[in-house]
Amino acid sequence: MAEFRFTVNGKPRMVNTAPERPLLEVLREDLHLTGTKYGCGEGQCRACTVLLDGKPAITCMLPVKNAAGRKITTIEALAPGPVLHRVQQAFLEEGALQCGYCTGGMILRTVALLEATPRPTEAQIIQTLDGSLCRCCGYSRIVAAVRRAANDAVSGGDGR
Amino acid sequence: MNDVLDFERYELREELAYRFTPDRREFLQTLGAGLLFVFAADAQNAAPETRIHVGENGHYTVLTGKIEEGQGARTEIAMAAAEELGAPLSRVTVLMADTSQVPNDGITAGSGTTPRTIPAVRRAAAAVRKELDKSAQSVTPADWKVLGTPQVRTNSRDIVTGAHQCPSDVQREGMLYGVVLRAPAFGAKLLSVDEKAAGDVIVVRDGDFVGCAAPTSFSARQALHKIAATAKWDVPTTAVNSTNLFDHLKAKAQSGAASGRNRPIEQGDVDAALQQAQRKLEATYTAAYIQHAPMEPRAAVAEWRDGSLTVWTGTSNPFSVRDQLAQAFQIPAAKVKVLVPDFGGGFGGKHTGEAALEAARLARAAQKPVSLRWTRAEEFTWAYCRPAAVIEVRAALDGNNAIGAWDFTNINSGGSAIDSPYKSVAHRIRFLPSDSPLRQGSYRALASTANNFARESHIDELALAANMDPLAFRLQHLDNDRIREVLQAAAQKFGWKDRVGKKTSNRGIGLACGIEKNSVVAACVEVEIDPRTRLPRLLEICEAYECGAILNPLNLRQQVEGSIVMGLGAVLGEGLQFERGRITNARFSAYKVPRFHDTPSKMDIVLVDKKDVAPIGAGETPIIAVAPAMANAVFAATGYRPRSLPFAPVPARA
Q1: Residue B296: CB partners within 8 Å, gap ≥ 6?
Q2: Could you say which of B160, B190, B216 is where a domain stops?
Q3: Cβ contact (<8 Å) for B159 and A103?
Q4: Do residues A69 and A91 both lie within one domain?
């Protein structure tokens, strides 16, 4: 057991835990942030995606000790107020979710993509999201939601 | 057999997963043993007041035993109630699958919510409205204001913000995390184990069940590893593996049922017709075992309080799971409450309650709530899978290009959509059960996919033998106007007539159609053969679908799109590999499910809306046309005909 400090959704947090424990389980079990999901435990589905220092990261295989001192953003903090983030809004409006279990991870991947590439091509969208699994197989709507979010940003949107 | 029991033709029927030793502190109630998967009849005529609660401020709550797993039932039920109540959708909430509060609407399966539960909800809502307003008129499809309009899932906001809690997300005060010791192979018996090896955690050994519960899942896993290292098993030897599977199924095929729902469908003397025919085609088709692999594995949270049990779990069958818990713990069903939060996918794979039983057993020992979620490897290995199939087809054309004989035998996978929609002079259509080496059960569209794959591939071969365009051949022989209509709709939108016969290197087009659970589908596709893998890539699909009056066109599109891409998985690479009683590819890195890059860049969906036909459930049938259309397209591209699911690579030309 050891103490680890990091920033989670803008707040400093400390956990006292086994260093090898996956960050995913610390977020869910200790910090009660269940929006980040377990899907495979081998980095193959990306349902466990968070933003780590602003970059998407798989947490099911990431030992908590490797997250020490870093900034973690989970899906719960993407829209701090009542107004949804434009990527969340785009997923909602496109119907880009069925069971919704992969949705948080997909949205965070999209946020990072649009940050780096505000107008991605279809090929860039598919390449970026290809590691993320949706077993409801709603891929075409997810691609449409990413495009919608990109267009919303360019056409004014709320700029976030 | 009534309709409610009949809709899942080979619904899993097996013994209770666990029968635990009674807790001595509790009153012992004797329950008879016997068949466990009791199907309650739908609560078709539940009294309006048990179905709909009228709240203050004109808000309504609809109560239903149906569950939401991404198929759209929650929104559809809300829409149906809003329509009949004359209320905006925003004033209707649906309370689903809390067995202590809702009517028992039976299992959520077999595309049954739309044809059975929706009418029940509409009747109750209409009665409530009549009660509130004597002058209210009954609503017909022509008047629909909510139904028939595209609506996103009513709790979408909670999904996109991460606020929604799936069963694996439920957290209770003082909760522990549980894990279960699994056998190293199917059928292995535990001879001995040192439970004390785990150290300071809750360990339960109860018959064949061994599990641990600890404050974190990490510590529970660590404890289990220590226990597992001490376990001695008696592992049975088995020679059946995924390589010799089809020979095994064929060798063990039982004679079919003489009567009942699985009796053969026969007309004329098919053997004589085959003997006399000049042009005969005979082929064997196979389908591998596949897993549902929902994103959320099986999960449950169990909590005991004063001898009563509450379980949150992801199951399509909440009342059955309640009864299983009551039987497993030998307590009255009235002391068990099952709640099903909207969960992370099922596709027919979550009709059972294993995780609920396991969590509840650990929670009883711990005297604390326990959360238990299967790992992906457990989900691949211990969940039931879609049955493998061997399908033998013999057919003959007579002088006028009529189908003179049609002899179709499905071994092991089931009788869904086994009947042929094509006219034939003589036919014999049979389902023969066999000895399945893997635990098998329901799956989206059941055996329809395999049966339609074999039939529609074979029909294409007959068209070729008749020297006819596969579209024209089908239109001539189909004995079903609704299929003909969607087939023509798909062909027209796709531009079949202009594209057929035109050769592009490494590319080909194909089509297929079918009927299952009373809805009809047709697809035209274009594929390209990947020169490296020699497997097809789906470039384009146009699928036409008709399921009566459309309730929620957005959700219907989602179901059709999802079915197409999920169906692609069983074509391109999904298949459980196993040997010596072990699944050898029980992980996403080895078992290939469809990803973004597999999705066709052009996907046209043609929805045929029949306002005068009662709405039909639509979550399954759109999957059945994908595989045969692609097989036919591969043949058009290469002259090689895939006869297995998943497809084998196209052999390189000599």
Answers
A1: A37, A39, A99, A101, B166, B167, B168, B314, B343, B344, B345
A2: B160
A3: yes
A4: no
d(CA B163, CA B165): 6
In a domain, A36, yes or no: yes
Give the range of the structural domain holding residue B587, as residue numbers without chain letter. 245-290+385-645
Instruction: Among A15, A44, A74, identify where a domain stops.
Output: A74
pLDDT surpasses 90 at A121 = yes
d(CA B341, CA B372): 15
Q: Residue B7 falls within a domain, yes or no?
A: no
d(CA B613, CA B549): 6
Whether the pLDDT of residue A124 is over 50: the answer is yes
Mean pLDDT, residues B573-601 taken together: 97
Residue B196 sits in the same domain as residue B231: yes
- Mutant choice from A8, A31, A38 vs B, greatest count of B C-beta within 10 A: A38
The answer to whether B596 contacts A37, with C-beta atoms less than 8 Å apart, is no
- Dump pLDDT digits (tens) for B150-175: 999 999 999 999 999 999 999 999 99
Q: Which domain range does residue A102 map to? A: 86-154
pLDDT of residue B654: 44
Q: What is the mean pLDDT of residues B407-416?
A: 96
Q: Are B498 and B532 in a shared domain? A: yes
Residues of chain B in contact with residue A88, where contact means CB-CB under 8 angstroms, are: 160-161
Nearest CA in chain B to A45: B588
Percent of chain B with pLDDT over 70: 95
Region B12-17: mean pLDDT is 74
Q: Do A34 and B588 touch (CB under 8 A)?
A: no
Give me the residues of A, 99-128, that contact B with CB < 8 A: 99-104, 107, 122, 125-126
Average pLDDT over residues B175-190: 97
Residue B493 lies in a domain: yes
Least-confidence region, from B2-16, B17-31, B197-211, B460-474: B2-16
> Which pLDDT score, from 0 to 100, does residue B32 have?
35
Task: Please check whether residues B425 and B545 belong to one and the same domain.
Answer: yes
Task: Give a three-class secondary structure readout of A42-102.
Answer: CCCCCCCEEEECCEEEECCCCEHHHHCCCEEECHHHCCCCCCCCHHHHHHHHHCCCCCCCC
Answer yes or no: is pLDDT of A159 > 80: no
What CATH number has the domain bearing residue B635?
Answer: 3.30.365.10
The answer to whether residue B264 sits within a structural domain is yes
Cβ distance B470 to B477 under 8 Å?
no
Gyration radius of chain A over CA positions:
16
A130 and A92 together in one domain: yes
Return the SS3 of B187: coil
Least Cα distance to B79 among B554, B561, B606 occurs for: B554
**ipTM summary value:** 0.97
Domain match, B367 and B278 both? no
- Choose the mutation target among A15, A94, A124, A139 for the interface with B, i.e. most B CBs under 10 Å: A139
Residue type, B532: R
Q: Which residues contact B520 (CB under 8 A, 6 or more apart)?
A: B480, B482, B483, B485, B486, B513, B514, B545, B546, B621
Give the residue among B39, B140, B128 at the shortest CA–CA distance from B85: B128
Between chains, do B589 and A44 touch, taking CB under 8 Å as contact?
A: yes
Alpha-carbon span B486 to B492, nearest angstrom: 10
Number of domains in chain A: 2
Q: For B219-249, what is each residue's pLDDT tens digit?
A: 999 999 999 999 999 999 999 999 999 999 9
Tell which wins on pLDDT, B31 or B276. B276
Residue A3 pLDDT > 70, yes or no? yes
Q: What is the pLDDT of residues B331-342, one digit of tens each?
A: 999 999 999 999
Report the number of distinct structural domains present in chain B.
3
- Please, which residues 487-516 of chain B have a Cβ atom closer than 8 Å to chain A? none
Q: Are B151 and B75 in contact (CB under 8 A)?
A: yes
For residue B9, name the pLDDT band (cuts at 50, 70, 90).
Answer: very low
**Counting runs of H as helices and runs of E as strands, what totals does chain B give?**
17, 24
